[in-house]
Amino acid sequence: MKKINAIIISLVSAICCWGTQGLLSHAENVTVPGYHEYVNTEDEAIDNWYGIARGTYLASGTSGIKDAGKGKVNVSGTTNARSVCDWVKVAVYLDESLDGGSSFGTIGIYHFEEQNTTSCHGSKSNISVTSGRWYCVRGVHSVTEGSTTETTSTQTKAMKAS
User: Fold this and answer.
1) 35 near 52, Cβ under 8 Å?
2) For the chain, which domains are there?
3) How far is CA 138 from CA 7, 16, 111, 150, in A?
4) For 14-49, what is each residue's pLDDT tens digit?
5) How open is the CA angle 46-66-33, to the nearest 5 degrees?
6) Residues 96-107: pLDDT tens digits?
7) CA 131 – CA 92 distance, rounded (Å)
8) Is the Cα dihedral 43, 132, 77, 52 positive or negative?
9) Is residue 62 within 8 Å of 47, Cβ to Cβ?
10) pTM
11) Contacts of 30 by beta carbon, 8 Å cutoff, 6+ apart
12) Does the pLDDT of residue 87 top 50, yes or no?
């Protein structure tokens, strides 16, 4: 009888551990499908991303860069959720090209987050840059609700700093 009890306890323990592992594996990181709309002028570049999937949390994301005059730029990013979520975040990466726009390296990172909301916006103004070089902004947008995190990214076209 003791051997049978030991076997039953072992089986129940194994099933419980396996079941717990199954619960842990339900945490999701999801990249949401969508489309981009680019707005480019002489002194500004914007990438607007819109989610196309129904029933998801992440609705849209925007990143932008604007020439602020003589060696200065402004950068911004916005993430929008479809409903109130635990966390709404945006990270804005300022990239610079030393070779006329062929390749870029990150020179600044700005993180913004809001809790229990539908939107997060952040901006940084009058960032010193080198006149005549090319700059662009990448945005990383995320929305977390419970154990699900949905993400997307945006990237502006390059613009030359005045």
Assistant:
1) yes
2) 28-160 (2.60.40)
3) 57, 44, 12, 17
4) 444 444 334 344 567 877 889 999 999 999 999 999
5) 20
6) 999 988 899 999
7) 21
8) positive
9) yes
10) 0.81
11) 56, 148, 149, 150, 151
12) yes
3-state SS of the chain is CHHHHHHHHHHHHHHHHHHHHHHHCCCEEEECCEEEEEEECCCEEEEEEEECCCCCCEEEEEEEEEEEECCEEEEEEEEEEEEEEEEEEEEEEEEEECCCCCCCEEEEEEEEEEEEEEEEEEEEEEEECCCCCEEEEEEEEEEEECCEEEEEEEECCCEECC
List, for residues 64-80, the tens digit of each pLDDT value. Answer: 999 999 999 999 999 99
Indicate if the pLDDT at residue 120 is higher than 70.
Answer: yes
pLDDT, averaged across the chain: 87
Length of the chain, in residues: 162
